[in-house]
Specification:
The chain has 354 residues and is an alpha/beta fold. Helix content is 39%, strand content 21%. The strands form 4 sheets. The protein has a 6-stranded mixed sheet with strand order 5-4-1-3-2-13, with helices on both faces. Strands 8-7-6-9-10-11 form a 6-stranded parallel sheet. The protein has a 3-stranded antiparallel sheet with strand order 14-12-15. The radius of gyration is 20 Å and the shape is globular. The mean pLDDT is 93.
Length: 354
């Protein structure tokens, strides 16, 4: 049986305290520092993932890395890469043929290129399938909110990152109007020009989020920022906000304050077969993040290669992994908001408040 591994890191010092009980009495900053030197470990074994097309079944492991987003982004990258690489060595010992970099382990540094050095198994960030599912979720939500994406200017907050850039390029290929929003003026200009080459017309670029999203009713947020990026008053009435980032870019308080706005999670999928992940990471049984799913899809396909690495995602890879996902039975998991599934009645209530 082919096996995969996927890295799950801590999202807060409390996550670490929950798993490493001997650290629970220490201040959070101490916990983060000490835990960052703890070797990675097996969180759980994954069973029962089965292709609808071929019947092939695979297994794998979730590997725990006790490092928070702050540590992954702010500590020396040489140290961070070494710790992530240890996850790869553990995966090799377990018998995995590919390892996926979850959440901020793919954001840190150069998007997995340095981490790959010295590893015999394949490495992928999972970002290609994350892009595909985010765009599908935005399309689904916009349709339910009666927003015509063919007419709307789609604002991408974090368009200079790997996922945001790929979303912008694909939307431009589809003939959609795009706004490029990022913190670095030079990077904004670079992505803006790439989109303009596809569109053949001028594209708006912004470094101010409030200005960038003003008037847009279709938003994608996908930045590596820690904390809420969107103030409730900035968001247009009746807008759809697809939050792809983990940790989230949009706080739950925003949705509570703006009940005329639909905030959804991007990148959540149903996994085929009878998957048993052996742990609870906040979703109902059988559902996973798209980045996890990319690793599973490649394993089902027998594609043990460095599929998505680096800071620039290839559009063709996004399209390919989406087709492979459909082949094996992976699909976007309805519309979810802050960990729960939304029904049509709830969305109708939002529309009534516009």
């Amino acid at each position: 049986m082919d096996k995969f591994a996927f890295i799950i890191h801590a999202f807060s010092p409390q996550d670490i305290k929950d798993h490493l009980k001997f650290l629970k009495i220490l201040p959070s900053s101490w916990v983060e520092s000490l835990a960052s030197r703890v070797p990675p470990f097996v969180l759980s074994e994954v069973k029962g993932v089965r292709s609808e097309a071929t019947g092939k079944e695979i297994g794998g492991w979730f590997i725990g890395l006790p490092m928070t987003p702050r540590v992954l982004l702010e500590y020396s990258f040489s140290f961070v890469a070494q710790q992530i690489r240890k996850c790869g060595f553990l995966a090799e010992e377990l018998g995995a043929k590919i390892i996926g970099l979850g959440a901020f382990t793919s954001v840190a540094g150069d998007g997995g290129i340095t981490v790959k050095n010295g590893l015999r198994i394949a490495v992928t960030t999972g970002d290609s399938y994350t892009v595909a599912t985010a765009l599908q979720a935005l399309e689904m939500a916009s349709s339910m909110m009666e927003i015509d994406l063919g007419q709307e200017e789609i604002a991408i907050v974090g368009a200079t990152g790997s996922i945001g850039r790929a979303c912008a390029l694909i939307l431009a290929e589809e003939g959609k109007k795009v706004r490029v929003i990022g913190r670095d003026p030079e990077k904004v200009e670079k992505v803006k020009k790439e989109v303009e080459e596809i569109k053949g017309e001028e594209v708006k670029g912004f470094i101010d989020i409030e200005e960038g999203i003003k008037g847009s009713r279709a938003l994608i947020t996908v930045t590596s920022a820690l904390g809420n990026l969107l103030e409730p008053a900035w968001i247009e009435r009746g807008a759809v906000v697809c939050d792809v980032a983990r940790p989230r870019n949009v706080a739950e308080e925003v949705a509570k304050e703006r009940q005329d706005v639909l905030v959804i999670e991007g990148g959540v999928v149903d996994v085929p077969g009878e998957p048993d992940f052996g742990m609870d990471f906040g979703y109902p049984p059988g559902k996973s993040y798209a980045c996890m799913a990319e690793t599973m899809i490649l394993t089902l396909e027998g594609r043990f290669e460095d599929y998505t690495l680096g800071k620039e995602i290839e559009v063709e890879r996004v399209k390919e992994i989406d087709l492979l996902a459909q082949k094996h039975g992976f699909k976007v998991s309805g519309l979810r908001s802050f960990g729960r599934e939304l029904n049509e009645e709830e969305i109708e209530e939002i529309k009534k408040r516009i």
